[in-house]
Design brief:
The protein is mostly helical. It has helices spanning about 1-10, 15-145, 155-170.
Length: about 180
């Protein structure tokens, strides 16, 4: 019975209870709005502003990071271009230096060759002069022994040099006039 009574009381409509429930709800709603809802909404608004500021800051930082990334890519490309240019210049300098060394070596070799040719020619002239002198002395000695007498030195030398000159020119020997 107690249950049926309780069930009947739950389904029964009581206008006074509804009125006081609505008044209590209104008062609680006003107090909550005045004391709790305002600060809660202010906190929500503040948090929303913080989130929006954070999103805006993140967007700015992302744009700045993209800008810095682009600048770094440009700087890297420029550094690579400069490095390639420096390598090209270094290669050109090395080629030019190599050509200068070759040119200098060729000049020095030509100078050494010319100097060697001059020295050979000089030594050849000395050797020919020595051979001539020896031949003249030999001719004088031979002529002196054949004639049996000693002519003066200047006549002997002139005769020997004439003989050697004619030998060098492959001309037949002309005899000097008899004195």
């Amino acid at each position: 019975m107690h249950l049926t009574l309780l069930a009947a009381s739950l389904t029964e409509i009581r206008p006074a209870l509804i009125f006081w429930t609505l008044i209590t709800f209104g008062i609680v709603a006003l107090v909550l709005r005045w004391k709790a809802w305002g600060p809660v909404l202010a906190l929500v608004d503040e948090r929303e502003k913080q989130i929006q500021n954070a999103v805006d800051a993140a967007k700015r930082e992302r744009a700045e990071a993209e800008k810095l990334l682009a600048e770094q890519k440009n700087a890297i490309a420029e550094a690579r271009r400069e490095a390639a240019e420096m390598m090209r210049k270094a290669q050109a300098d090395m080629d030019r230096f190599r050509e200068e060394l070759k040119s200098q070596a060729s000049r020095e070799a030509a100078e050494l060759k010319a100097q060697a040719a001059r020295e050979i020619e000089e030594q050849k002239k000395k050797a020919v002069a020595e051979v001539r002198a020896m031949a003249a002395n030999l001719a004088i000695d031979v002529a002196a022994q054949l004639i049996g007498e000693r002519l003066d030195e200047s006549k002997h030398r002139a005769l020997a040099e004439q003989y050697i000159d004619q030998l060098a020119a492959n001309k037949p020997l002309q005899r000097p006039p008899a004195s």
